[in-house]
Amino acid sequence: MKYIGLQKQITRNNKRSTLLLIAFPTVILMGVYAFFFFVIDDALEVINTTFLYTLPFVLAIVGVWFLIAFASHSAMIKMATRSSTLERKKNTRVYNLVENLCMSVGMKMPKLHVIESDVLNAFASGISEKSYTVTLTTGIIEKLNDKELEGVIAHELTHIRNRDVRLLIISIIFVGILGFVVQIIFRSLIYGSGRRRNSKNNKMDGRVVLIALVIAAVVYILSILFKFALSRKREYMADAGAVGMTKDPIAMASALRKISGNHALDLKSEDMKQAYIENGPAKKSAFSSITGLFATHPPIAKRIEFLEQM
After folding, report:
1. 3-class secondary structure per residue, the chain
2. CA distance 177 to 179
3. What pLDDT is stored for residue 287 in this prediction?
4. SS3 for 59-83, per residue?
5. Helix axes 44-71, 73-81, angle to 10 degrees
6. How many other CB atoms are found less than 10 A from the CB of residue 229?
7. Which residue, 124, 122, 119, is CA-closest to 109?
């Protein structure tokens, strides 16, 4: 797989970001309309009127939620990953590597954060030059040599240059909102079960419960689709982009080999794991072929093979 070029990748990811911004509220509104359609036992005109009346409220809630999450995503990521600012005085080596790489491609240097962990992992985040951040674990800083660490940093800088990180943030926010909706539905079903037993409208309540369950299932499936809106090819692209910056595919392959099997970070946010340089299972199992279908990253062995052929 060849790197398709920076500008083409940026254009592609900008289009995907726009499509996600359009698709998400559309899916929400379709779910709301479907709920009214199956619950309201009346003429289509009444259903449409109810939906139109609800429409502004739904859009307002989703819009406000999205804007808050979009504006505060950096703080939320920092809290979820338990990362802190990487001090320049104590990490001159890392700062020099990042500065040299940024100067080589004419990009503004991102912020640098660190996670106190012995495992080897890294990720990039942010939506603009003010918020772009590269986060490294102490393990990856200490256990990789300069050439290998340079490759990892170049990989994360390529995600920033390609606008992968902005697409990722949008996806995480959307999945978070959908996940919250699912939780609300299931909690209302669980805690409302007692009231339904004594309800005189058991048939209606049962129908509403069934509809809510179906919608919850659909929302859950859609949240998975949103999660995989980010193509796994982005990792190959970032690997190739890193080699373009460092001119050293062997060092990048060596870094991935060291990361393999020693990358599992125990963090609160499952959604953030799709941003890591590696997010595959630490050990192979009998179900690896099945779980691989839902993986956010291609197998690290294939990435290493790809790099060694460059």
Report:
1. CCCCCHHHHHHHHHHHHHHHHHHHHHHHHHHHHHHHHHHCCCCHHHHHHHHHHHHHHHHHHHHHHHHHHHHCHHHHHHHHHCEEECCCCCCHHHHHHHHHHHHHHCCCCCEEEEECCCCCCEEEECCCCCCCEEEEEHHHHHHCCHHHHHHHHHHHHHHHHCCHHHHHHHHHHHHHHHHHHHHHHHHHHHHCHHHHHCCCCHHHHHHHHHHHHHHHHHHHHHHHHHHCCCCCHHHHHHHHHHHHHHCCHHHHHHHHHHHCCCCCCCCCCCHHHHHECCCCCCCCCCCHHHHHHHCCCCCHHHHHHHHHCC
2. 5
3. 44
4. HHHHHHHHHHHHHCHHHHHHHHHCE
5. 70
6. 19
7. 124
Residue 298 lies in domain = 1-310
Q: What is the share, in percent, of the chain residues with pLDDT greater than 70?
A: 75
How far is CA 263 from its chain centroid? 17
| Residue 89 in tokens | 């005085």
User: pLDDT (tens digit, 9 = 90+) per residue, 239-256?
Assistant: 888 999 999 999 999 999
- State the pTM of this model: 0.79
The total of structural domains in the chain comes to 1
Regarding predicted confidence, which is higher, 29 or 123?
123
User: Which are the catalytic amino acids?
Assistant: 156
